[in-house]
Every structure is written in C-alpha cells, then in structure tokens.
Amino acid sequence: MKDKLPANKNIGRAIVVTSGKGGVGKTTSTANLGVALAMQGHSAVIIDADIGLRNLDVVMGLEEHITFTLVDVIDKKCRTKQALIKDKRFPNLSLLAAAQMADIMAIQPAQMAKLVEELAKDFEFVLVDSPAGIERGFQNAIAGAKEAIVVTTPEVSSVRDADRIIGLLKAANFKEPKLLLNKIRPEMMKRREMMDIEDVIDILDIELIGVVAEAGEIVIASNRGEPVASDEASLTGKAYHDIAKRLLGQQVPFPSFIKKESVFTRIAGFLKASV
Known about the structure:
Strand content: 15-25%
Oligomer: single chain
Number of helices: 12
Strand order of the largest sheet: 3-4-2-5-1-6-7-8
Largest sheet: 8 strands, mixed
C-alpha cells in the first residue's frame, strides 16, 4: 500500500505524543517513532516540549550537540534552523531540544503553535514530546498539533490518567487520538496478573496504533543513546517500525499475543485467577 502523505505536500503532519502519567515510556516512544519514520525515508523533527526536564536529547545520544534550545528559538536568540540538531545516523531526522534551565511559563501556546506550523513546512512529520500531566506544559505541547498519540501502560492508574488525557484531547478538538500501549508482558496477561490489551482498549475507546513489550534492550539502548528502532530486526525495533507504518496508512498485523476475546471470556478468566 502506498504511504499516506499529507494532502498538501508542503504541510507536514504535526503529532503530539502525550501521557497522563510519568514513567510510561513516552519520551522513548517519541524518539523511536522519529527514528523509524526517518529510516523509512520520511523527514521528521522531534521537539522536546518538557521545559526544565529535558531527556529526549539523552535518549537520542545528542546531548553534547546542543547549542540552542526551544526557548532560544521562541525568544528569537537564534533562527529555528540554528537550533535544529541533525542526527548523522539518520539523515532525515532532527531534534529541537528543550531548555534545561528555564521555566515552563517561558513559552506561550500561541508561540508553540506558530513554531510547529513553521516546521511543518519543512518536515513531513513534526513530533512533539509532551511533558506528563495536564498543566501548562501539556497545553504548550498540544498547541499546533493536529494528531495525538497517547502512551500508557496496562496498569490501572496509568489507564485512568490516560482516560483523562483523552478527554482533554477531545475537548481540544483532537478527533481521533491513537493509543500506544507500552511495557506489555504477555505472560503476565495470560496469567491475568496484568490488564489485558482488549480491556484497556474497551476502557479508553480509542484506536490502537501499537504495542511495545517490556524489554531490557530498551533500557540499554536509552542509556547508550542508541534508539532501539535503529535495529529493525529486533522485536522492539520492529514494534516501532510497525507503528510508523500504521501512521502512514499501511495495514500491519499486530503481534500474535493480542487475541480478540469476548468480555465474558475475559471476566471468567479474571474470576478463575482470583479463586
């Protein structure tokens, strides 16, 4: 199937990657999705909107290359292109880092929206890594974005917070946010020790765009500044490449451990496990 590109080829797709709860792997997911899109031949820029707590540059292994930041661009201390860090490993990918020593109020949503619009003229994809939560940082991150990916884990507290975020996104006219379910442990699901994927989908009522299993290689890759998506042959790398392909409109099957079961079957399984 032919990749789905924007109707206007001069305007890229602006996507915010967000979550209600911290620690669900949102930043790692943003970085690896950007890498996957770049490796598949699409130009992408990743914006770290987590002012004061930047981590995207570390995950990407680009922390030593930062000269200017997002706040510098907003304050007009540099041109946007001067602040973009090109990743030599992935020629189609750039990073706009967050300011580590700045207050979150240094940026207004309208300023962020203008910047995203500017970048969308030069890149096919603008990915905005949102800080966790629903405060000012979230409002900045969603400004200018037209699509949203909500990252959550199969834990009750994480799913509850994701539900809150989805409500806010819909109130802000995001019509079809997508779900990325992270840190899955299939064996725990089989034993009914972890929320089932179908249960999470039923609760959140949004389209599933990808699942990523819990894997030690993700931690190792992040610590080394080598995004796991750079190795498409690995299970985790393939998961992110599959997510990128679904974003592009391709029909990609989900992993075999995702099985459709009726609500009654799942309830029976939970009851049996609790006996």
